[in-house]
Amino acid sequence: MGKKSRNPSARSKKLDRQERQRAARHGEMTTVGMAAVLPLDAFPVLHEGEIRILPADRIRARFEAELASDNEPPLDGDAEFRSMLVEDVQEGRFRLRRDGNWESDNDYFAAPST
After folding, report:
1. What b/e readout covers 46-85, taking b as 16+ CB neighbours within 10 angstroms?
2. 5-21 tens-digit pLDDT
3. Can you tell me the mean pLDDT for 67-85?
């Protein structure tokens, strides 16, 4: 009797299934991240290797400084601030990590430039 060979279609099905699972996992994290942004006033953020608490007021100050540098009017209420923050989550600039802490491409702990 000859040696059995492995079914190549089973391997490709497995790889396809794993890829779909990875894609679904990323989508779930974004959804969880956006839902977590809305009610919070402070975020645990990984910054330079340590977890620091980032108040929403500090994020708002950075947004206000960016708007002022572009000669745009200041934020109009909490809803506009939250929508800008959700936009950062959607575009991946503010990410929820699997350990429940956040990480960001922006340095929110630096003093905002005016």
Report:
1. ebeeeeeebebebbbebbbeeeeeeeeeebeeeeebbeeb
2. 666 677 778 788 878 77
3. 87
